[in-house]
Design goal:
By secondary structure, the chain is an all-alpha fold. The chain has 24 helices and four strands. The protein is globular, with a radius of gyration of 29 Å. Keywords: Membrane, Transmembrane, Transmembrane helix.
């Protein structure tokens, strides 16, 4: 058997840069690439500040119904957890991004014959800038010659093992965008698109943890704040161009399915176009399509949707959408896992920046021969700083989703209903919304029982809760003489001639939705059974499939 020669050390693999080296060597530096990179960082910083300001306003504007001792204690223990996860995600993203930029500059400097700084500060360093010992850096020329964003995407997509990590983020981004569209509209959270933009600019786990904080700090739908924003100049112009939709309106599911199918086609097509101009178009179009679930409900006419008087009808459609996303993500993850396990090309860890990575060839060859196929897939996270960024993003996102499922005490059946692992099941039997007023006008015994059971009911609005508590206190008070006189007078007043019985109160659609779309944190400890199921789904079906199940359960278990 003829031995297969090992691939030599890859010094420069980027075909775009290799073909244009001679043309660019004598070109003056352009500042558009530098502006794009600077704009990326500036936009990420601004959106992070805008989201943080919105979180602070939500915390300061909590209604009295959300300021009880139990709620404050619960919130004070959960907010630091998700804030710490968001901070850890931001730090890791910045650390690995800086490592990638430094590595890319060193490779460019070596190709161009330019001296690269040895350290950040000191002799032969970047600072003190302008001194005799400092090394001059040519950032504009480097950005002109090196498409850093494109290089990062191609490094991930060009090998099956690295694609195993990157594909999970791309698949999870689709279910994340649908979750933002559903919960952002329902809760009237401002700048919902900013959370999705931060997922692209910084990291998926960073944006997810920020949105979890937004839900914790603004648990009830904020209709009053939304009306206040509509009275501004921007709000009036927006309403003139895109008239607001009625309460309970949802676009047809086919609009979402069309964008999802197109996105999946791009994900399937992207790896085969690495190194061509088509890959750039696919990358840009794929990121634009992730905003479709947020943009479509705002721009399409009312005739392209349906007004649901019962929220359970809309919840069933949302469940089917997340079930479709979970199934498609599972198929993609299964395909990527099989290709990653079967990929055994020699020196597969090499890439266009390998010359400056401290690879021990002997140790790496021994590790390649002795490690299992799945270990090689997991070990690809150390091939390049870009792959490490994506791998840490996947891990932190999976951890955050499990903790979020435990925080929300999601029903295991609701999670499985949004995945392909179980058969379709009928929605839970719940009393219709119009019976809420009948339950409030019950007898003292039934009123006390309903008050006791309301403590364990999930997601009741603060207004309905205060009304129910007020009626319970008045109905279960100790019967005094004055109380008997007041009730007697009330009965006498209803029997006077000329006064007919009061008309039956029928709540509006907005009031019905507000009565069932509130929110309340569970009173007990975290539900670690839901967290274990979430982490198990992530390990088996990948981040995309598990996130669809978790987000689908969170959207439908109202």
């Amino acid at each position: 058997m003829v031995p297969v020669p090992l691939q030599p050390e890859v010094k420069h693999v980027c075909p775009c840069l290799k073909e244009q080296d001679d043309q660019r060597s004598n070109m003056s530096p352009r500042y558009l690439p530098l502006s794009l990179v600077g704009g990326h960082a500036a936009m990420a910083a601004y959106l992070s500040f805008d989201v943080a300001r919105g979180l602070y306003r939500s915390y300061r504007g909590l209604p009295p119904s959300q300021g009880t001792r139990a709620r404050m204690a619960r919130r004070s223990s959960l907010v630091p957890v998700f804030a710490s996860l968001a901070f850890a995600s931001l730090c890791l993203a910045c650390y690995w991004t800086l490592n990638y930029m430094k590595l890319s500059y060193r490779v460019w400097a070596d190709i161009r014959g330019v001296e690269a700084p040895v350290r950040f500060y000191g002799s032969n360093g970047v600072f003190p800038y302008g001194s005799d010992d400092a090394t001059r850096i040519h950032v504009a020329r480097w950005m002109t010659d090196t498409p850093v964003h494109l290089d990062a995407l191609e490094i991930i997509a060009e090998k099956a093992r690295r694609l195993w990590w990157g594909q999970q983020v791309e698949l999870a981004m689709i279910s994340w965008s649908l979750f933002l569209a559903v919960e952002g509209r329902r809760r009237h959270i401002p700048s919902t698109w900013a959370y999705l933009a931060l997922a692209h600019l910084v990291g998926l786990s960073f944006a997810q943890n920020l949105f979890y904080l937004a839900i914790l700090l603004g648990p009830a739908p904020m209709y009053a704040e939304d009306r206040g924003r509509q009275n501004t100049l921007v709000g009036r112009l927006r309403n003139k161009m895109f008239p607001p939709k009625p309460v309970g309106w949802n676009p047809h599911a086919s609009l979402f399915l069309a964008s999802f199918c197109f996105t999946y086609v791009l994900i399937y097509w992207a790896p085969s176009t690495v190194g061509t101009a088509t890959f750039v178009n696919i990358a840009i179009l794929g990121r634009v399509l992730t905003f479709a679930p947020i943009i479509v409900p705002a721009v399409v006419p009312v005739s392209w949707g349906t007004v649901y008087s019962d929220h359970r009808e809309a919840s069933g459609i949302v469940t089917e959408l997340f079930r479709y996303l979970s199934t498609a993500s599972f198929v993609f993850h299964l395909k990527g896992t099989v290709l990653g396990l079967l990929y055994n090309a020699p020196d597969s860890h090499y890439h266009r920046h390998s010359r400056f990575l401290p690879f021990d060839r002997e140790a790496r060859s021994t590790w390649e021969r002795t490690t299992t196929a799945f270990g090689k897939v997991l070990g690809s996270a150390s091939d390049h700083p870009v792959v490490a960024t994506v791998a840490w993003d996947v891990l932190l996102s999976g951890v955050s989703q499990g903790i979020w499922a435990a925080t929300r005490a999601l029903d295991v059946n609701d999670i499985l209903a949004s995945t392909p692992l179980v058969q379709k099941r009928l929605p839970k039997a719940q009393p219709p919304t119009r019976l809420l007023e009948d339950n409030e006008m019950s007898t003292p015994e039934s009123g006390t029982a309903s008050h006791d059971s309301a403590a364990s009911t999930r997601r009741k609005t603060g207004v309905a809760k205060e009304k129910r508590e007020g009626m319970t206190i008045s109905e279960t008070s100790t019967p005094t003489a004055s109380g008997r006189v007041r009730r007697a007078r009330a009965r006498k007043a209803t029997t006077e001639p000329g006064e007919g019985p009061e008309a039956t109160y029928e709540p509006s659609i907005a009031e019905s939705h507000a009565a069932v779309e509130g929110d309340e944190l569970p009173d007990g400890d975290l539900d670690w059974e839901s967290a274990a199921l979430a982490w198990g789904l992530t390990a088996v079906g990948g981040l995309g499939s598990s996130s669809a199940g978790i987000f689908g359960a969170d959207c439908t278990s109202r």
